[in-house]
# Entry
Amino acid sequence: MSSASVQDRDGAVLLIRAAHQSFPSIEKILVDGAYVGEVINDAASALGITVEVTKRNERVKGFAPVPKRWSVERTLGWVGRYRGTSKDYERYSETEEDVIKRAMVALLVRRLAPGHPLETPRLQIRD
# Structure
């Protein structure tokens, strides 16, 4: 975690290094336009990681989902429906990570259960 005064681009360099350390087999990282720059490219190339910028279609006016980013944003929307993840209740990032994992497990279990619609996960996790 870093403070709010750290620019996203600078924080991304730290994140790329930490991700590579934890998962050395990472070959590609998808980013949006805010993360374009020499600092990101230098960090990624030093670690042998390709940085791919997913840009939205400039010709489309209004909302248009970007295929690779849409799956992430949709999943974050599903996770955000749960009580524990709807606000930032947790003091420590490790605790928040556990709450997110529990929400994802609940989503996956719901999808595996027969007869439940995939589009409306409403199971609540009680703390």
